[in-house]
Design a protein that fits this description.
This protein is α+β, with helices and mostly antiparallel strands. The protein has eight helices and 28 strands.
């Protein structure tokens, strides 16, 4: 599994306890990219706005990804530090085969956000991942909630526009807007505001370009005050004493299954409040935003996100983002932590067979770009392109659910029964998931058309004999406009 990173970090091999060779690979960085040996004590300085790191092991058949999980960060001396633990295909599950320690200087302008993401399914009216505020996140859940007279009365009072009549079971864009019942004022609890002051530097200390980051070290600032800023109470607060309502809601957490959310992408925004919000109105989410970056959860749903925001320059954060009575310049920091889910279709795919790696990549990128904005589909792999396509099952192991699609791997021609023409030297795969088969077929038509470029010999698709699921996407029918 790949771990996403932001900013400048030093990556050091902390420990190794494995029989298989180990290594780690840094990609997408400004400096520090490449393959690095899993030798204890080895380290590399990595810089870049957004990059990734993966731990790999070689069980004898070539290097492959290890399972990885992260520890939550801590401050050690003048650095923020966390570990990436890995587990290879060996019999144990101890996650100590190769352990990397990532460290970065703790400065007044650097912020580390970390947490856990879970997914839920089943007959859930409210999001079961937290018990307050109570959140209804789907049209189906709202329909069920309105069947309860007490809940219907509350929702009608707080959200009258949401109960005008029959609810569309397939609401159009924009997506369903959650209904929030904040019985215990969770959303209006005071926010903590901290004020820092720089420690006066000694007369012998002179600023230099190399010392700029050290000058911003957290140790060079004193915490002056910590204050609580209360947010305006919402109308739902009047329901806080309704014990019977709370009991009714608590009894609705039935039939829900909650699991970790691995490999989920989280987007982080810096948010400036609207004039209405500054005046005491409720949060609307319609103010200006600035994307800070993305993070990907590990196998347990844990994530770490780092961003930089210069707190030392007066007025850098919008001076207009100050409500009456506030004596600090600050913005709002948002992360999308809840995701609505519906049943969909996964596994639409096609393979691009090209004469060269350059031609395959150009065709794949064109295909991915053409499908990226298509309604109802996503391309789940980074950049939309799969470098190493897979097939269902394995020829050598009955326990593996997937393995390399060797028939379409040019470098395995000598040791397997190939399905490739002689002039094909590179193959890339595009995988498409969607809300339904029709959306996937429509997107595939666009992508295949965009991939037909010079240097591409053929377009084909993986055929798994019905083992992948009930949906089949026949490329000729799709290109003729007859759907899947």
């Amino acid at each position: 599994m790949i771990i996403s990173m932001q900013g400048n970090w030093t990556v050091r091999v902390k420990s190794k306890d494995a029989a298989f060779p180990q290594r780690f690979v840094v990609s997408g960085a400004t400096t520090g990219n490449g393959t690095h040996a899993g030798t204890v004590g080895a380290s590399v300085a990595v810089t870049g706005a957004q990059w990734s790191i993966a731990i790999q092991h070689d069980p004898g058949s070539g290097f492959q990804l290890s399972d990885t999980k992260i520890t939550f960060p801590r401050q050690s001396g003048g650095n923020y530090v966390f570990d990436i633990q890995s587990n290879d295909v060996g019999a144990d599950q101890d996650f100590n085969d190769l352990v990397l320690t990532c460290s970065t200087p703790a400065t007044i302008n650097d912020f580390i956000v970390y947490g856990n993401v879970t997914l839920y399914s089943g007959r859930c009216i409210f999001n079961p991942c937290r018990r307050g505020p109570f959140v209804i996140e789907t049209a189906a859940a709202l329909r069920d909630a309105l069947k309860n007279p007490r809940l219907k009365d509350v929702i009608t009072r707080l959200y009258p526009e949401r109960v005008p009549g029959p609810i569309d079971p397939n609401p159009p864009d924009p997506p369903f807007k959650p209904v929030v019942l904040d019985l215990f004022n969770e959303a209006t609890r005071p926010q903590t505001v901290k004020a820092f002051q720089r420690v006066e530097a000694s007369s012998t200390a002179k600023a230099s370009k190399s010392a700029a980051q050290a000058d911003l070290a957290a140790g060079n600032f004193n915490l002056i005050t910590t204050a609580q800023r209360s947010a305006p109470a919402q109308s739902v607060a009047s329901l806080a004493g309704d014990f019977e309502l709370a009991k009714a809601i608590d009894g609705m957490f039935f039939g829900c299954e909650v699991d970790p959310a691995p490999n989920v992408t989280l987007s982080f925004d810096e948010y400036d409040r609207t004039a209405a919000e500054l005046a005491g109105g409720p949060h609307t989410g319609t103010g200006p935003r600035r994307l800070l970056g993305d993070a990907i959860t590990d196998m347990n749903g844990n994530y770490i996100f780092r961003f930089t925001f210069d707190m030392t320059l007066p007025g850098l954060e919008d001076a207009a983002d100050i409500a009456p009575g506030e004596d600090v310049m600050e913005g709002e920091f948002l992360v999308q932590e809840k995701f609505g889910m519906i049943k969909g279709v996964g596994g639409g795919n096609f393979l691009i067979l090209a004469r060269s790696a350059e031609a395959a990549l150009e065709a794949a990128e064109n295909a991915a770009d053409s499908m990226a904005s298509h309604n109802g589909v996503i391309l789940p792999f980074p950049g939309g392109v799969v470098r190493s396509g897979s097939k269902v099952g394995s020829r050598r192991s009955k326990t593996m659910i997937a393995s390399t699609n060797d028939a379409f791997c040019p470098t395995l021609r000598a040791v397997t029964q190939t399905a490739l023409p002689d002039d094909v030297n590179s193959v890339l795969e595009i995988v498409i998931n969607g809300t339904d088969a029709a959306a996937i077929a429509s997107a595939m038509r666009l992508g295949i058309d965009a991939a037909c470029r010079d240097g591409v010999v053929a377009i084909t698709a993986g055929n798994y004999g019905g083992k992948l699921g009930p949906h089949h996407f026949h490329l000729r029918k799709i290109m003729e406009g007859n759907g899947a």
